[in-house]
Fold:
Amino acid sequence: MGFELYVFIASSAVLLAIGLYGLMVKRNMVKLVMSLEIMLSAATLNFVNFASHRIVGMIDPLAHVFAIIAISVEACVIGVALTFIINVYRHYKTLDIRKVKRLRW
Structure:
């Protein structure tokens, strides 16, 4: 029972590290949104993992409901972010975040 806890914690930490790497290194706005969503998925996985192992033999359904709501909110955030990205690309003809910052002034 305890082995699964550490496996999911490790996989959540790996996902968080991949997301942080993408946020720090990548310049493309689509890749930044993808990295942010990977980090949010890692947080959701970690939350469900700890809720499942809180009481031995019992699973808290509230954590799973929270995870489903978080996933649906993340999908809405992706839609809004991609809409902004499409509008930025139409206006500036680039997705590089550094060039868009320079063009703002």
In short: DSSP finds four helices and no strands in the chain.
